[in-house]
Design goal:
The complex is a heterodimer of chains A (about 500) and B (about 350). With about 500 residues, chain A is an alpha/beta fold. Helix content of chain A is about 35%, strand content about 25%. Chain A is built from 20 helices and 20 strands. In chain A, strand 19 and strand 20 form a beta hairpin. Chain B is an all-alpha fold and about 350 residues long. Chain B has one domain: Orthogonal Bundle (ABC transporter involved in vitamin B12 uptake, BtuC). In chain B, about 70% of the residues lie in helices and about 0% in strands. In chain B, helix 5 crosses helix 12, helix 8 crosses helix 12 and helix 9 crosses helix 10. The longest helix of chain B has 28 residues. Classes of the chains: A alpha/beta (about 500), B mainly alpha (about 350).
Chain lengths: ~500, ~350
């Protein structure tokens, strides 16, 4: 009999063209809370998906209580006692609390009518256990977010989960609700459940967890270590420490140049209340923040895709009222490269030419609003060539190109439009290392040529490589500014300090 | 399963491997196109009908077929320009009749020359269509719901205003157009449909508005974030749909020499089947973003031909409807097979 509830030995998972997990180990002991940490894309979610039967691993093996565990479906994982509370809501809003808790077992016999009084009675048991103050017959959509989170935990527990994974469970909870959740987590731990806690909030990890596994680039940066004795700095270093990959470009300082774009106390419908920043001509201003910190939302507000509710946006010193992307592009020469290439950046069913040229049609049209593809080709092909987009022809459907080449086109269309301010949102997600370095050089070249770039990324090495100056955003506010002197350890540490609150670090 | 995994993979550094895409010449591409399939069917059915009934290729039959086809083609175009935005216009019939009735009123009650009267009718069509468009954009509801509602409202208002009376004092010059024969077989109406088809083809290939409508239909979010005013484009498409519907209505007025409230059935619903048949047979994606003017033209023509042929073979009118419904199903299934064949062999 193993002393571990769960063990993963050298689990490897390859997706076409990328090794997502490379010989990853993880050991869970009963009655413990295990932190699973890593940057975005480090492999956390892939590991969770393998443990819950969504994906199958290619090599290595997993054990539960010493017996082999290789779930072929989510149902098998559930049967083995592995439960997960996802980051994204995983409940059916129009169903009642009780129906959601027992969702997996409701359909066990499709011909048998559901015994609602019994269902509600059974649900009461779990609601009491988790101290959820809600009627089992209430529709989930009528509950506050925190309670929905607890209902999800109840759902996982009702499936008799002995291994419970919580993926960013506190992302949408208030301080008070988080404390309630933690007291429940502690009780479950004392009852012998093995919990896995995934979070970007390191102070929470230190409060609730007793063991830690860190993944970096799909490998174990540390494996099932006791959390005791590991300081915040140690964890951060484990998560992001790869100084060796970063090319050292000289420091750039553009702060004495004219301001191309200025935000004064901007409030948005998305949730910003008071954001001020200035982007200088030819500067690469980095906007660092974790997913959900309000970076993309700010970009969308600047380009007029989301509503600005207060404050002022000035382009080259003049206050502007930008209410649509068309305004941003045609009146203010601002472009936005979306983080979501497939659904926001490109029209996959249309050709390379149509995608790259979409921003120049209006510039090229004649008096009756017509243009020829030849004129678009003339405007677009120098940029497509410059970016080395690999395509058999400009008339190729863009959905057939590789991710890296698609990404190049989503940048190319703004270069073709000749914008003077370019907002680039997570430009290297899903592109290979070579293209990534290429994109970095491209941003640098653009800035050298006088384009002002606002670079949004949560990729720390990318930020330190490319940005001249870095603003740190958290919870829809700018928390601080870091001058990038390309000293990776210092800069990344300072950024993390701004995000995770400076008080504790200062005390150390 | 492999596909699903590929999509949900946390792609950090995927190798840029993708299957090579085979290049085809324009001729090869045409042979694999939907339009070519339609031409084959049209030739095939011509041979079948002509061998069964010698009447089928008579001058009169060809002339009548062209005249009916013209109306069906316009109805198909009217739906097509909305389908490419990823929407629907259930009010094609209602708008067409409303516009045509207004044209009839202008000729009879206001005593206008037929040219300005037609122009007025087309403006009504544009306004009614634009109203649909504005309501769809402002409400954010699917065009299905909005046009279903406005179809009833518009038709009802038209019946109230006209007291369900027809306008029979149509200017003779106008109704002559509906009966005129060019070279014994060609109707000016078919000629009009061809000219409008060419104009539409040009508009969606070479004009900014046309291309922006297609971009908005293919991916509204991406189009908006590329600086296209998507709401405005959807409104334009619906206005254009209204104009094209009224052209079809005026063709019927010209042919019958009267503007009759029931010319497209109750609520204009007699036009629904032809409205969908043309564009769908023509290979326009119901999800929007891709247009085939020639396909819609040929699709509508095929439908007209089948109807005429079946009626000549003295198949009952009810059976014709059944066959057309079956044709729609078969066409959609065939197109599905063609697409998956192309995708499997990496030909698109």
């Amino acid at each position: 009999m193993s002393q571990f509830t769960f063990q993963a030995h050298a689990v490897t998972k390859t997706f076409p063209g990328v090794v997502a997990l490379d010989k990853v180990n993880l050991s869970l002991t009963p009655g413990s809370v295990h932190a699973l940490l890593g940057e975005n894309g480090a492999g956390k979610s892939t590991l969770i998906k393998i443990m819950t039967g969504v994906h199958r691993h290619d090599a290595g093996h997993m054990e539960i209580d010493g017996t082999l565990f290789a779930p072929q479906s989510t149902r098998e994982a559930i049967a083995a006692g592995v439960g997960v509370v996802h980051q994204e809501r995983n409940v059916i809003p129009r169903f009642s609390v009780a129906e959601n808790i027992f969702l997996e077992t409701l359909s066990a016999d499709p011909w048998k009518p559901i015994n609602y009084p019994k269902l509600y009675r059974d649900a009461e048991h779990w609601l009491d256990l988790l101290e959820i103050d809600a009627d089992p017959s209430t529709k989930v959509e009528d509950l506050p977010v925190a309670k929905i989170q607890l209902v999800e935990i109840a759902k996982a527990l009702a499936l008799k989960s002995r291994i419970l994974m919580l993926d960013e469970p506190t992302a949408s909870l208030t301080q008070h609700e988080t404390e309630r959740l933690f007291s429940i987590v502690k009780r479950l731990r004392d009852d012998g459940v093995s919990l896995v806690f995934v979070s970007h909030k390191l102070e929470e990890v230190q409060e609730i967890c007793d063991q830690v596994t860190v993944l970096r680039d799909g490998r174990n940066a540390c494996e099932s270590q006791p959390l005791e004795g590991l300081g915040r700095q140690d964890i951060v270093r484990l998560m992001i420490g790869r100084t060796e990959q970063i090319p050292t470009w000289s420091q750039r300082d553009c702060r004495d140049r004219d301001v191309a774009l200025e935000l004064r106390g901007v409030a948005t419908q998305a949730g910003h209340t008071d954001v001020s920043l200035s982007l200088h001509k030819g500067e690469v201003l980095g906007l660092y923040g974790l997913v959900g910190s309000g970076r993309t939302e700010l970009a969308k507000a600047i380009i007029g895709a989301d509503k600005v509710t207060g404050g002022e946006i000035l382009v080259e010193g003049t206050p502007r009222n930008i209410t649509s992307v068309a305004d941003a592009l045609h009146q203010n020469r601002i472009g936005y490269v979306s983080e979501d290439r497939k659904s926001e950046g490109l029209i996959l069913m249309h050709s390379v030419l149509d995608n790259a040229g979409i921003t120049v049609w209006r510039r090229l049209q004649n008096a009756i609003g017509a243009f020829t593809d030849r004129s678009v080709e003339k405007a677009v092909s120098p940029v497509v060539k410059k970016l080395e987009v690999r395509t058999p022809s400009l008339h190729q459907t863009i959905g057939n190109l590789s991710g890296g080449n698609q990404q190049k086109v989503s940048v190319a269309k703004w270069l073709a439009a000749n914008v003077s301010i370019l907002i680039i949102d997570e430009p290297t997600v899903g592109v290979d290392i070579k293209t990534k370095a290429y994109v970095h050089e491209l941003i640098r070249d653009l800035a050298d040529a006088g384009t002002s770039v606002l670079l949004i990324t949560s990729d720390m090495p990318e930020m330190v490589t490319v940005a001249d100056r870095i603003l740190v955003m958290d919870e829809f506010q700018i928390r601080g500014e870091v001058i990038n002197d390309r000293d990776y350890d210092r800069v990344s540490h300072e950024i993390m300090q701004h995000i995770h609150g400076s008080s504790e670090v200062a005390a150390e | 399963m492999a596909d699903i995994e590929q999509n949900s993979a946390p792609v950090r550094n995927p190798v840029t491997a993708h299957p090579p895409v085979r290049q085809m010449t324009a001729v090869q591409r045409f042979f694999l196109s939907n339009e070519f399939g339609l031409i084959v069917l049209i030739v095939l059915f011509t041979i079948i009908f002509a061998s069964i009934s010698p009447m089928f290729l008579s001058n009169f039959s060809l002339y009548a077929m062209g005249r009916t086809a013209a109306v069906n083609i316009m109805i198909g175009f009217s739906m097509m320009v909305v389908i490419v935005t990823g929407g629907l216009n259930l009010g094609v019939g209602a708008i067409g009749v409303c516009g045509a009735m207004f044209g009839g009123w202008l000729m009879q009650a206001a005593g206008l020359h037929w040219l300005p009267a037609c122009f007025g009718a087309l403006i009504v069509g544009a306004l009614l269509g634009a109203t649909n468009g504005v309501m769809i954009v402002k409400s954010g509801l699917h065009s299905f719901i909005i046009t279903l509602a406005t179809m009833s409202v518009m038709f009802g208002a038209m019946i109230f205003l006209t007291q369900a009376e027809s306008f029979r004092e149509i200017s003779p010059a106008f109704s002559t157009l509906g009966r005129m024969k060019i070279l014994a077989v060609l109707s000016p109406m078919l000629l009009t449909a061809i000219v409008i088809g060419v104009l539409l083809w040009l508009a969606f290939k070479f004009t900014t508005v046309g291309r922006e409508i297609l971009a908005a239909g293919a991916n509204a979010r991406a189009a908006e974030l590329s600086g296209i005013r998507v709401g405005r484009m959807i409104t334009y498409a619906h206005a254009l749909s209204g104009v094209l519907a009224v052209v079809a209505g005026l063709m019927l007025v010209s042919r019958t020499g009267a503007a009759i409230p029931s010319m497209a059935g109750q609520l204009g619903q007699d036009w629904l089947l032809p409205a969908f048949l043309g564009p769908v047979l023509g290979g326009n994606l119901l999800t929007g973003g891709r247009i085939s003017v020639l396909g819609t033209f040929l699709g509508a023509f095929l439908v007209t031909m089948l109807t005429t042929g079946l009626l000549l073979m003295q198949v009952g009118a009810f059976w014709v409807q059944t066959y057309l419904g079956l044709l729609l199903l078969i066409a959609v299934l065939l197109d599905l097979a063609r697409r998956s064949y192309l995708a499997r062999n990496k030909l698109v």
